Give the backbone structure.
Amino acid sequence: MQKAFLVDGSICLGCNTCAMACKNQYHQDKGILWRKVREIGAEEYHIDNNNILPTLVSYQKAPTAEMPMERFYFSLACNHCENPACVAICPVGAHTKDPETGICKHDQTICIGCGGCVKACPFGASKFNEKMGQAEKCSMCWERQADGKTTACVQSCPVGAIAIIDLHDPKYKEYANASPIGIDYAINAETKPTTRFIHPSMPKEVYRLPKG
Amino acid sequence: MSYSKENVESIVNNGLSRRSFLKGLAASGVLSSFPGGILQANEDLNTKIPYLGEKSYKTFRNACPRNCYDTCSIKTYVKDGVMQFIEGATESTYTRGGCCVKGNSYVKRVYSARRLKFPMMQVGGKGSGNWKRISWDQAMDIIAKKLLEMKKEDGTLLGAALTKYSGNFGITHYGIEGMFNSIGYTTRLAGTPCWPAGIDAQNLDMGDMWCNDPEEMKDSKFIILWGVNPASNSIHSMKYIYEAKKKGAKVVVIDPVFTEAASKASQYIQIKAGTDGLLALGMAKIIIDANLHDQKWLDANSKGYKEYKAYLDKEIKLDNVSKITGIPLAMIKELALSFAKAKPATIWMGYGMQRHTNGGSMIRAIDAFVAVSGNIGKYAGGARYGHLNTWGFNYAALSMPKPEGSVGYTGPEGAKGDVAQGKDAKSNYTDRFLNINKTARELINAKEPKVRLLWVACKNVFAQDFDRNQLIRAFQQLDLVVVADQFFNETAKWADIVLPVATQFEEYDVNVSYWHYWLTLNEQAIKPLFEVKSDLEIAAMLSKRMNQLQAGSCTFPQSVDTKAMMVKEFNPGIYEQFGIKSWEELKNGPVKAKAVIPYADGKFKTPSGKFEFYSDKALELFGSALPTYLEVRKPYDKFRMTSPHSRWSLHSQFQNLEWMEDVHPEPYVYINPDDAEAKMVKEGDTVAVFNKQGLLRVKAKLTDNVQAGTVLMYEQWYNNNIYNVNELIDDTSSDMGAFKTGAPGVALHDTFVNFRKL
Ligand code: SF4
Ligand code: SF4
Ligand code: SF4
Ligand code: SF4
């Protein structure tokens, strides 16, 4: 089983509820968001300040030219990669990949704060918490899932734009073979990120007042 | 084992997880003396918490009371007396387990380091910044003495004014009006800045403002979102709109701005601001000419259709409609005809559209179009605006008798607030009503007696009212300004006394919506932090002090608990409407009112009992019996400025929170690239936006979501940023509002500005 986020960009409102629901659940420090809602069409893929070594600076522009900024979004947290860089690099085994669910967990009681994962993650998912001197990231709410609940972000999304799927379930075949994020910015795809993204689309008819 | 504050901070700073820390505290029994205090000692503390499993928490029922369509039902998770996190109640099909970005920041609102903690007094004069902590007793003593002194000197308490609005729409919060009722006849800032023109319009047309259940929209075949942006401001409604769309319904957004909702619709039609009414009249003409109107319904249920049709025939020229609205005629025709052919079809009108000098007329025109199309009184149809149909509480907290011998205002009968007010016994006097939308000048101009004391509750005057420079003058000339709030906002800065108020998690209340049909209990989930008190407790304390100083001077109960007051608000009507036997059932979750379709029986509360195209009342009040085209305000500067609500705030609430700063750190002015180019403004430049009212410095974002000739700035209040869009807004009235809410609305979106690069 490989649990994965399926984010539907065609209905995502960009409301940031998912990002805040995550803060509501875990109380991350100021400046740290485990889930981030980004605008499609922004020139730069803004790497968080606390990423020590951004490895990714740009991604393909909006799928269609007329798709305006600030209106189309993708919500992204940790991709719980099939071949996670964070797990590979961690010298003390604080990052582990759950063999049953495929969730990449990070254990703060072990983390020595070397920051290797923060540097290694191509998606800026692993964050460095300066005050604790430790890394932290989305845990796919494994404790909530173990308790029979869904993740905080999924539960809160007002339109059901995020779902948890099993990429290995034949039911989701179309996603299993899709490009990792859907939008072509997963340059370092060798980590095999599992998040799948349904493309946004413009309304069929858009009328704007003529200039002048 | 005992913990000093330093002790606490050092433990937390040394990286002990809060969980084990709390465990330690709980074991040592000192937690009760730090009710959540540890969470706020320093806003940057390591406060990360793990999820411990449903059974580890005590849960409480809460509601979001902040003047939002969605009025979410909340489930609050508490451990060791500390709020851990919240979720939307799953029992409500509307909230469906979620809140919005704002609601999800509630924990940080409660435990914000920035919260007001103690009563304070500004000793160096208003705006001096010279504050002193005082006790509640001292605060109440100062206020009570002032009130009694005013009463003695003026012979009345009309010198005491209350301004309260939508910071908390919980039913017991009408106790603040109750507090003012209980001291005598006083002055009230009446009216509403939100939706008055539209309320009047709907009342003229249908005798009420009453909308279909939003959950029905899933079965609508055609939805027009007209000047409303639910993707930002009523996000839980979006799922019904998506559902309809998925089932094949067409969703059209008509708005001057390419909004978030527009980006998710089937069709977006940009329109010139303030011309929506004309478009609706044109669309009505088109469907009547095509014989697609519902003649049968109109014959049975409407008054003045003939006059209305004659007006359309004579005055509405479709070429003109196209020219003035900016929309091609073929598109208008297609829209009108396909709407009329789809059954049921519905229009949701936003509160933005009526914020024009012709706002009420525009809502009337759209009501008329929906009526002509035969969609009023139908399941999944309707001309949706809002409703107060589930607000039939007792308003026990409000209905206080006047003290013996109270003297009041003898002028013509004053206005009333927009939500039910208590029925006063027959009296020769009334309170004095000033227009809330002209607060600054009304406070300055009020005479005999002049206003000497102002009480501010559930409202951030400086962020909500207009003409800031006049406001400062108005505040300065008052003897005493009392601000009861949760944060040190700009209004607090101009106060003499600031009182820290409880959040909804620290008090009992009951909440309903003006949009959906759910009823939610709000329980006290945690003990009040610091020295905060509920508005009701404050009223009781004031009553106690006043009666100590002068027996019988205040009729408000001298001690009150919010739960007891909440219980008093229920009545058989509410139980019947919501199908419950007792308020206690609400502990199991929110309940929904029995389904009703507004006006399905064809009965309207208008004088004629019918839908009134022709309204005598409208003629008497506004000079036009029919929904006619009224031109919008003429520009007085280069660019139209529109100032809608953002997704990050509700009026001035939420954007000031630490967590919110992480998702939306700073304000912008949104400018069309063509306009920006002409002014040599680039993305990220700081620009000055200015007009006759004032000037704002703010960063520019270039986007053609905003049409050329228009700039957009959201209404928001930041903690450490002096940005305030109302700096630029004058208090020009919209055409309607005085009929039902006591004062006309404000033509917020008829503001004009210029800008330049700094
Ligand atoms: S995924 Fe859902 S919650 Fe997150 S921004 Fe999109 S619509 Fe909002
Ligand atoms: S997204 Fe980054 S942090 Fe998450 S599993 Fe992949 S490499 Fe690790
Ligand atoms: S799955 Fe849980 S931890 Fe991950 S982003 Fe969503 S809420 Fe946050
Ligand atoms: S602001 Fe509105 S949508 Fe958000 S939690 Fe409150 S009621 Fe719900």
Observations:
- Residues A 21-22, 25, 34-35, 77, 138-141, 151-153 surround iron/sulfur cluster (ligand 3) (CB under 6 Å).
- Residues 103 and 142 of chain A are 8 Å apart (CA to CA).
- Chain A has six helices and ten strands.
- Residues 43-63 of chain A have pLDDT under 50 and may be disordered.
